[in-house]
UniProtKB/TrEMBL annotation:
Residues 13-59, 67-115 form the Helix-turn-helix domain. InterPro entries: DNA-bd_dom_put_sf, HTH_17. It comes from the Bacteria. It comes from Nocardioides pinisoli. Pfam families: HTH_17 (PF12728). This is Helix-turn-helix domain-containing protein.
Length: 119
């Protein structure tokens, strides 16, 4: 009988395995695939498969980026969380990413926003 955590350590992972491994819903994996922002995947018939090595490379790249919550970003920029929300709805302000149902801001985007706003 296979233990539950053996799936996430296999060289080839299913969408469900990767979902458990990353702690995100399978629907998020599909959204990342459509936007071409997630880890590389391939098809095995009608099923998606993810190579563990490529997932680890993708995670390594994304873990180097310091992400901040809206509260942390508002403290960093000295603007309110409501102002950040308004900017997002209008397509203005610093760049952000939606991770599952959460909003995250990369620190580099905040620095670029401050530099561009100061000019």
């Amino acid at each position: 009988m296979k233990r539950q955590n053996e799936d996430c350590c296999a060289p080839v992972m299913t969408g469900e395995d990767l979902s458990r491994y990353l702690g995100v819903p399978v629907a998020t994996l599909y959204a990342w695939r459509n936007k071409r922002t997630g880890p590389n995947s391939g098809r095995d018939g009608r099923y998606l498969r993810y190579m563990r090595a490529e997932v680890d490379v993708w995670l390594g790249f994304h873990s180097c980026v310091a992400l901040m919550s809206p509260a942390e970003m508002s403290h960093y920029l000295r603007y309110s969380v409501a102002t950040l929300r308004n900017w997002r709805s209008r397509g203005e302000g610093p760049g952000y990413a939606r991770v599952g149902k959460h909003i995250r801001y990369p620190r580099e985007g905040a620095d670029a926003f401050l530099t561009g706003n100061a000019a």
